[in-house]
DNA sequence: CATGAATGAGCGTTCATTCAT
DNA sequence: GATGAATGAACGCTCATTCAT
């Protein structure tokens, strides 16, 4: 288990990084992150060898959390639509509840610091979601479309919906439904 | 009037900025941009008072170019689907042909340097596209969805499709069609 | 006569320099001075080869003007004290009337740009004043003190008095009198 | 506590600043000051947040040192003239011994970087000297003159005397005496 | 000669990372 | 291991001066 030193501090730094990234962007100084985490400037580097490492690990953790939240209590015996719908609403709910996490994730997602490896690992976390999507399009008009493209389209629609919900939280539920229906129509 | 401020130089700096941004990201030094443009370090600042100004103007110009390219030769007398389809394929073709422009645009789009004003001006450039979309959904299932959300969804699907095309250029046309069909299904 | 080009522009630049120095200090950009003078950036350098040259000439001119103002209407047949007193009040009046000139002069006086030569030329302008002072101390307690030191003391007292008058213009005349009486007591 | 901020380094930077200011003026690069102090470029900014802060603190420290030196061993039981005379000769001696400090102080004194607060704090350091002066003029011809003006006159005479002593160090003592006698005559 | 764009050295400050304590 | 001072490369921007028009 690559979990040296104090786990508390490690996660404190991660949480701090997330918050600071939201507030100040990716160019936020490590010193600010350390202060927010309540640790010394240099201590950050005993937990993460470089700033980029911190960002990569944070990206992965956030993505994992997002995937886990999306899959919570998805009924295994319901119809495909019911399963997918539950997953979607979990996803959207997470985005609203964990606004900062999502903001940070969005920023990290476009950072040059995030390596291909990290992105691929993150992708792994989405396999269950991907599988659900795969089954949902299996008999529809996109049955022959490349899976990657379908996934990318789904993902982009989710992002767009989240952004819109965030801008107009009062009607978040309605927007979520519009997004899901649009997706479902696309698939099929 | 002495050497008048040359439009050539101005656009050389813009083009250089675009290229350098693609290669090095938004944190590319102004000195590198200037060198790529073949002008002195300080000359950049006779054309753009700050780096942020350069970025804003570049963003706007690229967006305008994209919008113009998308609307080229869109038949005004054809069916709505024909018009929309032509616009979409223009858009995708532009994205493939002007790969660097698109990359730069994507990076600039998430920059904190781009002001609300610039974003709003850029939005203006898209009104014709938005109008086409508006008409396309008018009688379909999204007729009551917020226009902003529909636009965001369309935009995100276009982006996703472009990204995928860029990764697999050989089948770009097929992917473009998948994307358009997906969008059309979503709208109605 | 070393007075090439347009004399108007030359003096416009000088006046502008004086004003800008007062407002912005000696580090004011030449571009700002040029704009204030209503001439082009580069034109400044056809009249003054360097910024330092401009400053030196300005210093000299201001000093000359100050000396001339101080000597105006000094009675040649009155008592020494009357002459000296007239000179002093001229000096103080000039300082109040030409506040900007004095401010600029003070700033220029401590600048490294002002050469020894310039300072010596400026000193030349003060010979009449010096002579008056020389005669005033001739029979007094300072008769054996170095002339330079006596001059420096007088000058410093004048400066101090001017500064104080500028801070409290309402009582300027009273302060002027205090300064003169102090000086006269010192001399003798 | 890791390497604590060392007072040695702090004062090394101050001393370096003083020397460099004397040699190069107030526009001396911070990099030069740092090098002269034997620290890295950036280290200067761990001790002083800005160049202006460094200058303000240096100004204050020099002024404090000057005041302290002036008051050393001033007899509390002697006549007023004896006390004042001792103070004056201390002052002049300091100016000769600490020529660089005085030069730096003079330059800093006219800098825009020195804030009103700093100047007021520095003024505080001079209260004892001011008190001595106050008593010295109490029964003389300047008894009704504004205290500020009297102080300014004294100060300016001291400066002028110092300058002259510096130019002709061989006769420094004689010049000092001339200056003091002149001041005493002025006061009454 | 007037103009103002072009030049590039130079500066104050930041910040990821290292290292003495 | 924890701390935070030390480091120095890097950057955006300025400005005196030059020079093409």
Mean pLDDT of chain A comes to 94
State the secondary-structure class of chain A: mainly alpha
What is the β-strand count of chain A? 0
Order of helices and strands of chain A: HHHHHHHHHH
What percentage of residues of chain A falls in helices of 4 or more residues? over 70%
| Rg of chain A, Cα atoms, Å | 18 Å
The geometry of chain A reads as elongated
> Which protein chains are joined by the largest interface, and how many residues does each one contribute?
C-D, 33 and 34 residues
Number of helices of chain A: 10
Oligomeric state, counting identical vs distinct chains: homotetramer
Walk me through what this model shows.
- By secondary structure, chain A is mainly alpha-helical.
- In chain A, 73% of the residues lie in helices and 0% in strands.
- In chain A, helix 4 (51-71) crosses helix 5 (80-97) and helix 4 (51-71) runs parallel beside helix 7.
- The model of chain A has no long low-confidence stretch (mean pLDDT 94).
- Chain C binds chain D through residues 25, 27, 106-107, 110, 112, 141-142, 145-146, 148-149, 152-153, 155-157, 159-161, 163-164, 167-168, 175, 178-179, 181-183, 185-186, 188, and chain D through 25, 27, 106-107, 110, 112, 141-142, 145-146, 148-149, 152-153, 155-157, 159-161, 163-164, 167-168, 171, 175, 178-179, 181-183, 185-186, 188.
List the SSEs and their pairings.
Four copies of one chain form a homotetramer.
Chain A: H1 7-24, H2 30-37, H3 44-47, H4 51-71, H5 80-97, H6 99-109, H7 116-125, H8 127-137, H9 147-167, H10 172-187
Helix pairs in contact in A: 1-2, 1-6, 4-5, 4-6, 4-7, 5-8, 5-9, 5-10, 9-10
Chain B binds a DNA duplex (21 and 21 nucleotides) through residues 1-6, 9, 27, 29-31, 39-43, 45-46, 49-51.
């Amino acid at each position: 288990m690559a979990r040296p030193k104090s786990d508390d501090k490690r996660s404190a730094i991660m949480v701090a990084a997330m918050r600071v990234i939201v507030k100040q962007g990716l160019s936020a100084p490590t010193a600010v992150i350390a202060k927010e985490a309540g640790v010394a400037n240099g201590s950050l580097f005993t937990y993460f060898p470089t700033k980029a490492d911190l960002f990569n690990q944070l990206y992965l953790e956030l993505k994992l959390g997002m995937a886990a939240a999306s899959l919570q209590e998805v009924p295994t015996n319901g119809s495909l639509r019911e399963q997918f719908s539950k997953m979607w609403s979990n996803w959207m709910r997470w985005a609203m509840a964990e606004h900062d996490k999502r903001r940070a994730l969005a920023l990290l997602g476009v950072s040059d610091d995030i390596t291909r490896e990290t992105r691929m690992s993150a992708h792994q976390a989405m396999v269950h979601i991907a599988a659900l999507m795969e089954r949902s399009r299996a008999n529809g008009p996109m049955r022959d479309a490349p899976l990657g493209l379908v996934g990318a389209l789904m993902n982009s629609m989710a992002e767009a919906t989240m952004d819109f919900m965030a801008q107009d939280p009062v009607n978040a539920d309605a927007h979520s439904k519009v997004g899901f229906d649009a997706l479902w129509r696309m698939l099929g």
